[in-house]
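Open question from group meeting: does this chain pack into something compact, or does most of it stay loose? Before anyone orders reagents, we agreed to write out a predicted structure and look at it together. Recording both the input and the output here so the notebook holds the full record.
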Amino acid sequence: MISKRIEEIINLLDRCNTLADIGCDHGYVAVEAIKREIANKAFAVDINFQPLLKAKELSKKENVDDKIEFLLGNGFDPIEEEVDEAVIAGMGAENICSILSRAKDKISNTTLVLQPMKDIELLRKWLFENGFDILMEKVIKDKDRFYVIIKSIYLPEKISFSDKDIYIGRHILYRTEEGYEFLLKMKEKMQKIMGMKTKSFLDTSYEEKVLTMIEEELKKW
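Structure tokens returned:
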């Protein structure tokens, strides 16, 4: 049984011809996308050999291994063609940004579904500054942990974005219960960091700025 996190990632995929599951781990996304006929063909890519073996085993068990190509390598490097959609999930934002930076020439026509484990604001900033707009952003809670999932595409025209889009995120447009809980958790974290910095006489201007944005949004819920 796949997790709620993986299920929500799959729910953001559009019907497509080719899908890349970057950092595929057990291959759940690639396998489910083929099983559900969301993609006709998938590339399951991982930098380590063992996860690829597990993904291959799963694909055989589910009888979809003939539609998935298993590739050992970093990010999009081993994929020799453009793909319609790509999922990068379960790693830090800095790592995701690095993968996207190396593949910029390959992904201008690719819809990206991204799920960073930390430093989400870094990823949002990279996307906006590199011409990728955020079409949708969801906050989900799975086993008492919050996850942010972002759907993004490259746009040739100039993108309009605000500090709030970077530091809070566009999930606030949907006013979900999970989004509200996530903001409360962010507020608690910022207050804690600000308290520690204050005791050490460190600059708290960043935390103050984010806290102000969070409190403004919480009032609107």
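Observations to bring back to the group:
The chain has two domains: 4-172, 179-219.
The longest helix spans residues 177-199.
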